Amino acid sequence: MKNIRSHTNTIASKAKRQAEIIKVFSHYGLADWFAKIPDGRISDFLIKPEQKTIAEKAPAERLRLALTALGPTFIKFGQVLSTRADMVGPEIAAELQKLQSHTPADPPEQVEALIIEEFGKNPNELFSSFDSVAFSSASIGQVHRARLKSGDDVVVKVQHIGIEPQIRLDLDLLGDFAKLIEKHVPESEAYQPVATTREFGRNLLKELDFTSERRNMERFTRNFQGDETLHVPVVFAETSSRRVLTMELLEGISGSQPEDIASSGADLSTFAKRAANIYLNMILRDGFYHADPHPGNFYLLNGGVLGLLDSGMVGRIDDTMREEFENVLLALVQADAEELSELLLRYGSAPQNVDKVGFRTDIGDLLDDAMNSGIEDIDLGDLLAQVVVIMRRYSISMSARVALIIKTLVMLEGTSKLLSPHFSLIEVLEPFRRKIIKERLNPRHWWKKMRRQVGDIDRVITSSPRALADLIDSFQSGQLKMKHEVPRLEITINRVVAGVLIASFFLGSSLLLSFGVPPKIFGLSALGTLGCLSSLFIGLQLLWSIRNNIR
What we know:
By secondary structure, the protein is an alpha+beta fold. The protein has helices at residues 2-27, 40-43, 59-70, 72-81, 85-88, 90-96, 108-119, 123-126, 163-184, 193-208, 210-223, 258-263, 268-286, 319-333, 337-347, 356-372, 380-393, 400-419, 425-440, 443-477, 489-515, 526-550; strands at 129-130, 136-137, 141-147, 153-159, 230-231, 244-248, 253-254, 288-290, 298-300, 306-308, 314-316, 520-521, 524-525. Strands 1, 2, 3, 4 and 6 form a five-stranded antiparallel β-sheet that branches. Strands 5-10-9-7 form a four-stranded mixed β-sheet.
């Protein structure tokens, strides 16, 4: 009975919130966005056109206002969409970057109740002093000043009361809307609304767990150990939990106050370059980066050190994705339009009938125009944004991870230019470009890449028997029917079998090389070396025979 009542309450809450969402969109003159969804539940909630307000504002601005009115979940979702110019277009993406999440602070008694819930003690027992009035409040939490028993001055981030159930309800509804859009708006298929909202939900729920942000801060500290140009606030674990985060109070000047930084005597140009260097190291060296480089998260500390705040939003890229992104950056900086367009088509998701010639031409024109002004004057953030516009024109979408990197670099250049108007990200990127090229000439780079590819081959070989068995089962059960005549089928099958055997032989030989199995010649496994060379020779012969038959 209790479960039935709970389920009924959930349905009622969803229906009520759904009505609120649609009425807000209707109020801001965006009701036509639902026109393609033939759902009576939605149309019933729409306010009549004559009741719409602020219709004189641009649609992008009305969307921003609507998302702001709907609260934290939708503000966060809008901030994510601001990174997807390929999905929503440059005008909406630019407008959504203005989204600010200023939420009224919870009253002191609620803050005290939450701290007692988390630690079993009230703030006065945990801290030497605790300011019960928040000095800042955002979408997920609010920040209080405090002092530890040890005498350290700290800031305490406390999660808003009751925000988690509200966010979970909103995420559930966003998922429902995404399914409706994917079902009834065919052109949305390329952008995978359901997958996008699911990924967003996962990341937002991580942000609700402050232990995740704590781990991010500790990882940044480890990655930059010994680097005196960056300081990440120290976290105090004893007074931190899932909904409370206690960290060192940074004494410095916020990056959102460049005039104060300039009047302090600090070199704004050096500070901007330092911040950019740190971010490029995070992305290109560590594959783990702070994904919210707006000015308020930068602090100028004593000695020109960069203090980095708010590590709730981070990006991660693996070795393969990092190499792909490096390829794009190299092609972009070297103005290689042919290479850049090929990379974007390969890494992006393009429709089958995409106009490749037109796409290459537009990318070429863009790079030609950019290079006419001289490479030192190129605004890399703007150039990346224009590449995304061209991709959208040809319905080529990119992964959410790549979109987040691009958004981060665009924001980084914008923040750096706010600090130093003559800042050039291309100039800061140049040493990284040289380092990338140098590393790729290193035999160790190719050995690492070969081992990765051997792993891919191993997975293919391992999974092939199961996949083949599933295919045979489908034929036998009548679930899969095919009628196709293949000329010289026996020869083709023999070649496939030979290819698999050669790959297996190469894999085994590579493992012998990797583990240094004796006997050895010049420090390399003789059997492994012989096996690799033999499989390479036989493989080339097989390719040569296929080439001759094609002719």
